[in-house]
Amino acid sequence: MKIKLGLLYGGKSAEHQVSLQTALAVIKALDREKYEIHPIYITEQGQWMRGECIEGEVQEVAALQMKSESNAISPVSLNKEVIPTNTSGANEDNIDVIFPLLHGPNGEDGTVQGMFELMNIPYVGNGVLASAAGMDKVVMKNIFAQAGLPQANYVWVIRSEWEKEREAAYLKVEEELDYPCFVKPANLGSSVGISKCKNREELEVAFEEAFQFDRKIIIEQNIVGREIEIGVLGNDEPICSVVGEIVPKKEFYDYKAKYIDGDTAMIIPADVTEEQYETVKERAIRAFKALDGAGLTRADFFLTKDGEVLINEVNTMPGFTPFSMFPLLWQHTGVSYPQLIERLVSLAIERHEEKQKIKYTI
Question: What's the CATH number for 3-123?
Fold first, then answer.
């Protein structure tokens, strides 16, 4: 029998459009002989919509944006075994596995993962803890520090602190870091709201920008080095892909370069020594395990001229767009895009079955 695969995309997030592009790419790659594709769309206002099983080809993201009230659902309807109904054949609507293709808050941060845990539905990717910690750059870097992973110096500021005493917030950065530095929303990805600052004036503008997207921001020391990325795949015994290198044509790899004009170069595999590759691989797996990861992550590193390998961050739900690094890394490792999706679904089922062994009664 075909697996009823629910593709969850959209979301109440600044990365809504990125999610739509990811969903479109995944739909085009899925094997229709193995999967029933059930689209589940979350609007920008947070309303859940479910469409009919996708039979034909989908060419544009507009076709994925459901608007009819007849498509509106409650998320709990995805598993009527948890909340039984008296309707005959109600379980026919159940989804076997959910593939969350959501980026940013309200999707990649453990919120929907927690809901799926409560509903006992298998889902692709990281669990509540890893998703939440991986979304919050401050918490993530604190965990990496505890795990002994070398990384750039950083500080963070809460919006209420900044609003109360702005000068103190700027001085906190200048006392701990040097210019240039990067200012980022703590809970966002895809380079949204990020600024590179070379002086106090640019720092003040960057604070204004970043605080539009989160109540907490992180400021990181600029590292002069190559941007190296590696894919991690698995559950308790993760494996790594080849490494790739990002060579942005602009000053840094921003949202437009990633998702709109592809204004960057990706070198896969990257030109690194065997020793450097082994270091990146070991630290990527250590970061994955420190977060208690599951399914997949993309780990990003800096490789300095001195040969130092510094972890930058991990992405617990890397994109699957035509410009995305994660599937390209695995393609060059020998795992095609359809095979990668199939492996992720298999890992989701494996992890779900393992959790069913947990005893909840005394």
Answer: 3.40.50.20
